[in-house]
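ingest -> fold -> write
write: protein_1
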Amino acid sequence: MAEPTRKEGAKAAVTPPAAPRTQLRVGRLVKAHGLKGALKLELYTDDPEGRFTPGATFTLQVPEASPWHGKPLTVREFRWMNSHPVAFFEDVDDREGAESLVRAILWIDQDSEAAPDEDEAWYDHQLVGLDVVRDDAVIGRVVRVDHLPSQDMLIVRPAGSGSGDAEILVPFVKAIVPEVDVRAGRVVVTPPPGLFEDLADDDSDAPEASAAEDAPED
């Protein structure tokens, strides 16, 4: 499982590591900082000081080719530098080591019964299965959540479609998904034209043109 999915923000493209417990996504390593192994963080938590205490250990989400694949990562120090969150980790002692971790996603175990304590945040399993509602009409259902590098996407199967039909990628941003009501079992969407249906061709002049072409010549 994933950390509570937010409506906005950069996310990961690699499948999160499987685990018997719910996995919470708490950060992404975005850039090496300095020469001593520090890394700038993109935070997916409202409690960074609590999450990144010395000794805190994370499961890493990295490509299989990464030398860090399957290895844990333990915090040595967390600090703020020029308003940016920066962390030092065990066994990462220089810039080369830090650069080998850039774009890695940090996960921690969380009890499956725990609920997200942040506003506008949900676990993936809370979103999957919700009805997708537009103008009070159900137009689809969330079948999964994809965490892409740029943002999260709700993958929606249109109402009345079969399991093999195409799926619609809905950016999980407030402008398009203004409301999530887990208790009511729905997400409300205000999609741009063409997201859930093909834009109609502007052929309003076609009948007249056709009639003109079919008219007998004088």
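write: protein_2
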Amino acid sequence: MSYVYQWLDGPWGDGDMGSWADRSPLHEAASQGRLLALRTLLAQGYHANIVTIDHISPLHEACLSGHVACVRALLSAGANVNAATIDGVTPLFNCCASGSVGCLELLLQNGAHTYTTHTHFPSALHEACKRGNSQCVEVLLSHGANPDEESHQGTPLYIACLHQRTECSKILLHRGARVNVGRGADSPLHAAVRGGSADLVSVLLEFGADVNVRDEYNQRAVELAPRGAQTQKLLQSFEVTPRSLCQLCRLQIRTLIGRSRLKLLPMLPLPPLLTDYLDHT
């Protein structure tokens, strides 16, 4: 496994620190943000797409460390924007791990793919949600990333709830992420309740979370909440107080509009009050 996963504490690491010995001077310069050295090495004939045995490129290194100028120089020298390590890690993934919006936007402007070619490969959107890098989530979605992207880890929303990333969850839900789809039978609401976040539970309920969904152990979210906890009180209160007609209409209208067209809401000839109502603002 590549050392990138060990650095990021990713779910694919197996204890092997990867191959450091075969990293080139170009890798070192990119990792440390030494732009002058990087340009000199490129001018001396080092190839922008030189890789280690694990297929880690200098662009991977620059993105992981958030060095925008080095990323720009490597791209100008022909670096492969969609290069993948043997574990499927892309430079885009590394941007989301480090939270570097500048590097992320540069890659997307140069043709970086927002999707993965295999459900077992790491997804940039999932990583941004896991890390709580909400700006990266915004940028990825604005460039066409699928908020319901399938992964063995679950949906991006599920990952955001699992790691208690309320802001990322809000962004995904505003963009039309399916509120009840998580990982298998486990819903985002189940994950939020296990984490004990009342704020996150409240957000999910506002966007239509089904309190009657059961996990693989046939338990509803309220049955997972600790007795007397705020999450339990919230769910118990919700069960005896049905959603208002106002909430139900908003959820139904948003469903009819469809996820791909939600971004067009501000363009509709509607009063701002109605647009804000439909947009949950």
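write: annotation protein_2
The two ends are 44 Å apart (CA to CA).
Residues 4 and 18 are 8 Å apart (CA to CA).
pipeline exit 0
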